[in-house]
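Intended use. Records such as the Peptidase S9A N-terminal domain-containing protein entry shown here are meant for training and evaluating sequence-to-structure methods. They are not intended to support clinical decisions.
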Amino acid sequence: MRGTFLNSFMMAMALATVTTMTASAQPQMTTVAEAIDSNKASKGVADPRDYLNEIDGDKAMTWVKARNLSTVDRLSKDPRYGEYQADILKILQATNRIASPGFMRGGMFDNLWQDGTHVQGLWRRTAWESYMSGNPQWRTILDIDALSKAEGKTWVFKGENACRPPTISV
């Protein structure tokens, strides 16, 4: 279900971007956002949208689903929607994309790969020479989809950090 949700969300965002880019050829109108009563924070009063901080909470997910339905409803009224949706889904699920370099260390190249099978992603590694060969041999470091399934939680890859080990003086 989360994979379908993620694909739908990514598609909606991409369609919004494409629709905005297409519409940008037309004269742009400028709107200034103004605070409205329901958005004003009052001192000593709890934030009425605090429930959104609990990203997997029932109330937050209901809010998100309502906004997604509204967005898809609006976008789907555009006559180009079906064509754009098919094109975007094809790109998102393509297995022949060029893997973009993420982190390189010691002649090894790491990459997060996402496609229709690995919606949350595969963190993987190959040697630079293998990558440059045009047919890289990847070694999986972490399968985020498998981890999420095994632990019954949704895990999200947010990048990698590496620290050089401290030097020890003797």
